[in-house]
Amino acid sequence: MESGITISLEPVSPADLGEVDTIFDELTAYSQHVDGVLRRDNAAYEFATALPPGYDPRQKHAFLANCQGAPVGLLDIIDGYPMPGTEFIGLLAVRESAQDSGVGRALFREAERFARDHLRARTLRLAVVETNPVMGFWIKMGFRPTGEVKPFEGKMIKSRSALMEKEL
After folding, report:
1. Contacts by 11-18 with C-beta closer than 8 Å and gap 24+?
2. How far apart are the first and last CA of the chain?
3. CA distance 107 to 103
4. Check: CATH 3.10.50.40 for 7-167?
5. pTM score
6. 117 alpha-carbon distance from chain centroid
7. Using an 8 Å Cβ cutoff, are 9 and 114 in contact?
8. Digit-coded pLDDT (tens) for 67-83
9. What is the DSSP track for 106-142?
C-alpha cells in the first residue's frame, strides 16, 4: 500500500486485450516519446506476448493493474532475463488520467513484491529510452544506471536505452 493506494495485479488473458487496448489509448505521451506516434499498432498483443529470443512464454508475466476495481495501468515482467535471479520490467505504465497521483509508485511497489515473493528475484532490471522522461522516477524507486546503453528503434524514432538495476 502506498499513500492509501492499493493496486492489484490481474494476469492478462486473450479476453483482456480489449481492456489493455483502452489503456494504450491513454498512453499517447509515452507512445510519442518512445515511438513518435500516438499509438503503436498491435500494442496490446505485443504487450501480452513479446519475449526476448529464446525465452519461453511461461517466463512472461503481463498484468492489468487495478485500483478500486478499475484498470489503471500495465505491468510486464520477464522472469530470469537476462540471467536467473534477475527480473526484467519490460513495461510499467499508468493511464495518463491516473498519473501524478501516486499510482505509478504503488504499481511499482506491487511489481517489486511480485518479483521478490513469487519469482524469487534478487535483482530488478529495466531499460529507459532516452526520449522518455522517466529516469527520475526510476531513480526515486531505487534503480541505478548500469552504464550499459543499447540502440533503441521505435516506430518513427531512433534513440538509445539506458539499462538500470535495483538489488532486492
Report:
1. 11/61, 11/62, 11/63, 12/47, 12/48, 12/62, 12/63, 12/64, 14/48, 16/48, 16/64, 17/44, 17/45, 17/48, 18/44
2. 18
3. 6
4. no
5. 0.93
6. 18
7. yes
8. 999 999 999 999 999 99
9. HHHHHHHHHHHHTS--SEEEEEEETTS--HHHHHHTT
For residue range 102-137, list pLDDT tens digits in order.
999 999 999 999 999 999 999 999 999 999 989 999
Q: Between vectors from CA 71 to CA 85 and to CA 23, what angle results, nearest 5°? A: 90
Question: What pLDDT does 4 receive?
Answer: 85
pLDDT tens, residue by residue, 87-102? 999 999 999 888 888 9
d(CA 123, CA 83): 10
